[in-house]
User: What shape does this take?
Amino acid sequence: MARIVRTGLIPILPEEIGEGTLLVTLSSSLNIAPGTPSRRLNSLAADVVRGNRLSVATAAAARQLLKRTIAGEFPHEDTGALAKRLSGVLAIVLRTGIDPSKLVQFGSERVKRLGKTVIAYRNALRARNLIDAAETLHFAALSEPKRMRMVIIGHYRARKEEIEFIDSIADDGSVYYLPCGDAGFFAANRHWADHLSEKGWQIANDDAGQASPGNDIALRFAGAGGLGGQAQAFEYPDVEAEVRGTLAEVKQLIVDGADPYSIALVARDQSIYAPAIAAVADEYGLPVRIDHAVPLGSTATGGFIRDVIEAVSGDLPFETTLRLVMHGFGPKLTPEKLGEARRNRISGVERWSELLPELANMSWPERQRMDSWIADLRRLLNAFGVRQKAARRSAQLVAYNTFLDALSAIDPPEGDRDLSFEAFAAVVSDILSDESTKLRPARAGVALLEPKNIVGAAYERIFVLGMAEGVYPKPPSEDPVVDFYERKQLGANGVRFAEAAEVARWEELSFYFTLLAARGSVVLSYPKIVENGESVPSSFFQRLGIDKVPMAAERTAASSLEEQRRTLLRYANAVDDPAMDAARTQFAVESRRESSLPFDEFDGVTGVPIDPSTRTWSASQLTTIGQCSFRWYAQRLLRLAPPEEMQIGLDPSTRGLLYHKALEIAVTKAKDAPDIRSATLEHLDAAFAEAELDDDVNLPRLPNWEVERQEQLRDLRKAVAAADFIFEGSRVVGIEQKFEDVWQGFPLVGFIDRVDNTPNGLIAIDYKTSGSVPKGAKDRAGKLSVDVQIPLYANVALKSLYPEGTLGDSAYYSLTKGKILRSVKADDMEKLNMLAEDIHQILDEGSFAVDPDDAEYACTYCEFETVCRKGPRLRRKSRA
Amino acid sequence: MIELTPDQKRAAEAEGSAAVTAGAGTGKTRMLAERYLHHVRSHGMTPLSIVAVTFTEKAAAELRSRIRETLSSKLGDEKTTAEVEAAQISTMHSLAARICRDFYDLAGIPADFTVLDEINSPLWSAEKFEEAVSGIDIEIAEDLGYKWLVGVLKVLLRDPIASEKALSLGAENWRQAIDEARIAAITDVKSSECWTVADRTLRDCCGEQGDTLENIRADVLAAMAADHPETAIAELNGVLKSFKSNSGSVKKWEQSSLDAVRSCLSDLKSAVKATAEIAGLAFGPDDEEAARRIPPLADAFRYVRDYIAAAKLREKVLDFGDLEHYALQILRQPEAIEHYSLRWRAFLVDEFQDTNAVQAEILDRLTKGASLTIVGDEKQSIYGFRGADAGVFTRIREQILNERRGIEVPLSLTFRAHAGLVATMNSIFEPVLGAMHQSLEAHRSESYLDHPFVHSAIVEPAKGSSSRQRQVTEARYISAQIRKLHDEKGVEYRDIAILGRRWAPLETYLTVMSANGIPAVNAGGGSLLETREAQDLYSMLSFLADPHDAIALVAVLRSPFFAFSDKELFAAAKHLSKDVSWWDVARQRPELGRAAAVLQQILNVADHSSAEQILRLADKLTGYGAVIANMPQGVRRVADLNGVYDLLRRLETLGRADIFGTKRYLRELYETETDIPRPPLEAGEAVTLMTIHRAKGLEWPVVFVPDLGSSHRGDSSPILVDRDLGVAFQIESDDYEKAEPAIHKLIKLRNKKREAEEARRLLYVAITRAKDTVFLTSAKDKGFDLDILRPGLDAAEIVEETIPFDEANAIAPSPGDPPPFPIPLRSNIAPVGIGLRELPVTALSVYARCPKRFEFQFVDGHPGLSDGFASAMLIGTLAHLALELDISEIDTLKEMSPGVADDALASALALAARFRSEAVYSGVRSNGIEKERRFAFTFGGLNLRGTADLIGSDFVLDYKTDAEMHPDEHRFQLWAYARALGKSTAYIAYLRNGELFRFDEDDLRSFDADALRLADGIHDGVYDATPSVEVCRICPYQKICEFRAVVEVAVPEDTQD
Ligand code: SF4
Assistant: This one.
């Protein structure tokens, strides 16, 4: 009996495989001939290899060996990086059986290097009785395997090594399906079919026979007619909408009784689609099988391990270590300890381990043997209990195990030499980028496949997503070692790499087979926006005769609770949804906030009057409430304050406290000296040092404090030296002078930074760390023009403190500018009294509207923007 | 297909190089595709030897698609057409990335770098800047001032290459540059037309003595004649200041003279004013001080830059700027040039006017000896702020004409606007663009809309009206026009765009349109992190990262996550104290109980979920997303929400998925004010609002260009980088004065001029997006853009309409709800359970033991927590192997299992030996006819597969190497073996115990019904736990299973240690 190549465009698969005939399929999940055991070509080849007393190297072992080879061949290169650069093309060389010595003979410099690497690497493998997984088929084909009768399905893309292996193992009576058509993208298949025919195979070009609707579309794509069956095509605004639209449809089908395993989702670019599909599928409660793998480094586990390494290499710096500690896998700090860590900006192993004993495990030596490094890292991870924590999600535990396995597989070329921590860190970072792990290990559900993995399969319905130009077909990328130009040159010397056209055609071929896998319907879609940019529909649409891709219709089903809520929120329908009522209220509240209706109880209006006489008031409080009553409400009534956070530099308010304290100390010592200014300067250094330690100042540890301190002190000295600091002939009569008085019904309390007796009378001096006049409270036109502090100090405080004294011009003194910023003015009190009236009204009504000044200057340093929800909406609110 | 126009044809078929100036809508993509075809057909090139460079990814995709189409229809060579897919048709960045990959060694970069795109790059840098700054030399930091330095470095690092260039210029040529600028300005004004006209007019006409204008005239003439030019200009400026447009008395002048003198003085006044600014500049002590600071600043800059660059190399990441920088370094080496000259013979570069200096040099080096076609339009150069240099276009064009002997082709037949509109545009832009102007002709003569094709409308300058109010008035006008277009002229909303220079005012137009029921969409301007949605999610994350963050908690409570009223919150706040935090209160007070319960539920899973998962859960529990989607601009809000999820996914790929880390990261982004653009949005059936920059390359029938009256802020940055003059800044001197060195002023003036030029081009781009009609509107009768356009509008005789101001209508209205979503016809909200189909036979035993365990293992793919079994399993596998291949020598087994310890090999061989020698097994041993038979078996809707260890004519046998014997659990597996292979007896050989267990036909038959039940459960996805101490004790999932029976014996943990 002859061996047959069936080249029909649509493989007519056998109903049943006869006894004694082996079924060989591309993958186990092809949905073809269930109940018949099937084998993979690769595993048959692996058997052959094993029969030769060799084994196939594991991926990790192969990588290790390759690195070691490279380190030997190119001692000055970054082995990990070079291994990654070479590995793709090296696999091609091994897979297709290209003779590496020819590369050395005919190639450019870089190709010669490749050739040498392949030779050395292969020798290293053989010395260990190993072969690389990529060379399995080629190797097996050369070893004259025992022939078997077989039917080979799914290997529809002719590859040299597969053809050779099939030719060497298939016995008489075997059938190999290799669709060949006239379209250009079948060129390689035609070539290999001819090759087999030369080897004595019989070509059977079966008629397509009864094509299923999906097959019909494939035929159309191949330019081979087609009976009028057509794919549905949809355009969606973006990837999210596309995924929702598609999964909704899938869910609907399943709810209506379709077999989930008869449906496949196909996406060429899994890095875009897999995470998006996973997220929406979770929301929909629709199990999806996703094969996509991501590098370990981009998993939570990988991120955590990277943090560990980073923290150790920086000797537990504050920020990285905090992140590490508070990570889901970290040992965690209690709120108190968290506060403490932040306040003191803890760093270094010693101080950290006082806070968290586990961190003592992070004190590592400078150099040690690789196995000791590995042991140290494992010990640390164990101390953190990472394994148990990771076990909460299967994906994370899989990732963690992958990491540990890779760590165990390390087999350092240096043997037992001591290695630096950096060298170890580089090894870990290589693992994080080399190893990958499944995004989702779950195995039940609708399949999400790459086109290359659907070849030869059969599904009732296929949904191809991401049909945008540049996404599918995806332009082949040039290999940096053997680019297409060089492939042509090498081809002339009999070294055959796939050339540009062939690689490009694979995209078309894969699409053809994707269509072919559909027994029933095919739905193609593309998003108009992908990766933040606009896209163009794939040329494949046109090839199918679809000139204009219509917008997908409005959805008619709610596929998740969230979607149902979204659609029904504004209807009064009763639904089974515990959060719906609340959501409706939330919507009403937020709508009103966004409208031009006046502020209400959801916008700061508590309606509870506040009696000002029951509180004490400072000038700054009056300013705050006069700038934006909501801000005062948040600060004083809701008592909100930001958690302590570290700053890159000194924050303005601490700086203010520090300056004030230093001056208080220095001026107190200097006030009786004949020359107050120079005496103050004399005392300033010591005073500054004292202020730094002061509890009220509560100076945090700053990363660059030594530098900044000098600068701050210099600024302060400059301020004292400036002429305006103290007027000629003045005496200091009060420092941090407290006053209490009731003004307009507000019990006032305050501290005047300094009271000077000047030749023109008594003045209050208030130090400012900013360089400009402090913004006052709002006037009735919405501008911050009402100064509160100096007028109050001058007209209320000084009067009550010194009822007899004459009053001069009280003023702000800028410590950063070294000059008087503003002195009292005649109309100050009139404005201030109007403000008092306004504040009374606010308090009486308990109406703390989000009402900053028009320019929203009040918001610049306000911490409550996330609370008050200001924004363009304020333009729609008329001022109360 | 329409024929190529003669110009297109000339450009496409040029023999050598070509410089093509392509006006708006003149079909350059088509021309490029034809040029590509020409290279292939007539010059014998293959696609692999032609490089095409575009400005955006989308343009690259479009061009590739167009080229493919052109080649496949006109060339008829499938192979060549297929090569187009692999051809270098890409953005400049991809080209640079390829060069870096090819020659990483020449640039000293890692071979396996990854590229940080425009969004990931700032994400990455935010983390590094802080680290870098803390290492600056203390003396430098003290000398220059730490705060100042940090601020300046942030600016300089935005474009490190340009900054390096500028800093390395030092300050040497400042003095000369200032002098030259001064002289040039004076020379310019003296040779200007207005000067000549003034000189002549003022001499020719005069009024009566004593008249103010007459005095001015005399003074001006005198000052114009003075010979110390610098002081004279200042003087002249002083004199002219006293001139007002109504100076002079009509009685003392002849009317015509009066008009002439007034007009020429007014022109002269503004010209002299501008000149005087420059003429007054002199290199002074402040410049000396600034110059002194340059070297330490350069040191600090280089330190930080190098620190960051080193970190990039260490972490193997490069951003777009780095790619270009390194690509250029590579191309400076002959080896690389030679490599590419073998490969690439023709270059097509689109949007050449947006090329920056580095890119230009890259192209220059690559294209030596090749054919070069550049396509661009200086009038559309609007990326100056990104370093694009329109001068490059002129330079290369000259080079093409002179050195490469190429040709220049203007494309001026536009396929976009109709003849009437084109004529008006020509009239407008002739005076506005001056020398740069290129008249277009229209391909289409008829218009779908009536005359006039360009409208101009300005809000009445009512007294006392605020700019905000006038903006609302402008918005109402726009909205009314759109309504009219739609209702009366049948224009679809999607055919209308509103294009603004700035994003902010567009928000007001949106509100007003939305209030009037006009669907309109912000297509994506502004910063994502500033949106309300981003801030709400950030608050939620902040709370979850630290439940004692009171601001975050209260923000969440007030937000649409919960929407508590201030009444409730105020009441709750009474229970706060020093030891009772907001979170405590929330948990204690029943009024807040609803929120506390939800938040607690989220907190419970926060540690092992990604930030995205957590926020989606918060949405699920609260309905946040539903609220957002139903709000005005709901589509936009949802897109922003998704944009945040997308951002979180990006952070995830950087290894940041946990709550705390993500929150810190976001905080850094907020603090460094990193601009993450809002995701673009498809307008669909709505009016599109976008910035002019984003509108490039797009077109609409009707285009509104509003906000022409806004003033232009200009670059007020205290630090300026200039490619010719270096880096300049203001200095704060010891006596507290902020001093502005002359060089800073000079650069500022130059920038202002450059920006004004760019503003002209921006208006050109905006207006030429229209196919039929343009509306120009302004809230003020004067303004930066309006002033630029005025001469053009006058020249085109466009009637200026006045928009009446009405105070009552000048507050922005409520936006009004968008139309509700249609009621879904079906509700598919219940999750669907999907069972398994493909299984190993052994899975049956697991399911029989506990379906929950089955779910963990086979459905979730969970590896479990007990690798104490790992070594046992290894021995089992090896024993099977030894039996299959008849191995009894340790060395043979070792050869096949490299890396396995000797004792494991020995144990495996020992087990194999027991089977071979012990008497219990002698019967099956001698009757066995086949080993390792793989089989597949379909039953109960499941596809089972397995391998039978040993088969006899009527039996099947399975080896087990387990320590304990559990035939009861293994029975389903054996049952399946027997049924699949059609045998009547099944054996288990327990090798460790030396036992042989037998199931006969009756036994097997009694399992049938149970097996079918198992299959149904597996098929339908029923995974109810069946816990018992027995089962849970040896379950690898006991630690994480909520149903486990109490077990004391712990499964060993991480025994690999
Ligand atoms: S951000 Fe502005 S509006 Fe909001 S509370 Fe603060 S000051 Fe008021």
Q: What stands out?
A: The longest strand of chain A covers residues 518-530. The pocket of iron/sulfur cluster is lined by residues A 628, 630-631, 850, 852, 858-859, 862, 864-865, 868, 870 (CB under 6 Å). Chain A touches chain B through 198 residues (CB under 8 Å).
